[in-house]
Amino acid sequence: MFAEAARDERAHAERTTGVPRLYALRCTTIADYEHAMAQWRKAWPDLACLRDSHGWHVAIGEYASSREPTDTCIPITLQTDLRCNRTSHRGCLCVGDLVSRSFCRGCGWHSEVVGDDTDTDAALLGLDHCFPGWRDDPIVPSVPYDDGPKRRTRRNWETTVTELHGTERPQGYPMITRRGPHGWRAVPGRSLWGGYDVAAETLGR
User: InterPro entries this protein is in (predicted)?
Assistant: First the structure.
């Protein structure tokens, strides 16, 4: 078993020698990141594109988020896998983590890189860039999951959130909700304005 694992390590090292990494690539649109990944995948089809390229891509949790450029600052979270592809880390110099950063679809701004498996820390940095002062907003009720055919519960919730904020918010604006002891991840697309639903607990509130 160990001999087979060693052979796999050597074979992988030989296949990836000279293969470029995309970690340092800095693009101005999501489409450019996707194009770079597509070109890399076309050039090295037998390799694991996400792990071997270390390229930035839209975070898995953002699967329903728009990738299109916007006229105003709206954040989206990117991730990259810096772990190696070996069966062990003997003699390995990989950074060894799944890291995230926020990207602004409006102006191309990038946040610092953060090592957060849930990508919440990166999302908060993006919100600070796009919507200064949002952390002081009121805590609002969570979006209702169960609703009747006339959507009265949803409409009542929308009215409550709007009244608590006291003003209309721009597209992509976040809301802050109380979650309890578990489930503190910032959820994209779940606010009244299509932005992140942020747990008050992650803000120390």
Answer: DUF6349
Report DSSP state, residue 71: S
- Report yes or no: 32 and 8 within 8 Å, Cβ to Cβ: no
Cβ-in-10-Å burial (0-12, 13-18, 19+) of 200 comes to: middle
Of the candidates 24, 41, 25, 44, the one whose C-alpha atom is nearest the C-alpha of residue 33 is: 25
Q: Helix (H, G, I), strand (E, B), or coil: what is residue 188?
A: coil
Please, are residues 73 and 104 in contact by the beta-carbon 8 Å criterion? yes
Listed by start position, the domains of the chain span 2-130, 134-203
Token pair in block for residue 81: 């896998």
Q: How far is CA 131 from CA 4, 82, 104, 175, in A?
A: 53, 30, 11, 11
Determine the Cα–Cα distance for residues 121 and 125; give it in Å rounded to an integer: 6
C-beta separation of 118 from 100 below 8 A? no
The span from the CA of 152 to the CA of 203, in Å, is: 31
Containing H/E element for 73?
A: none
More confident position, 48 or 136: 136
Q: For the chain, give the number of residues.
A: 205
Give pLDDT tens digits for 35-45. 988 888 888 87
Tokens matching residue 201: 């607990």
Q: pLDDT tier at 130 (50, 70, 90 boundaries)?
A: very high
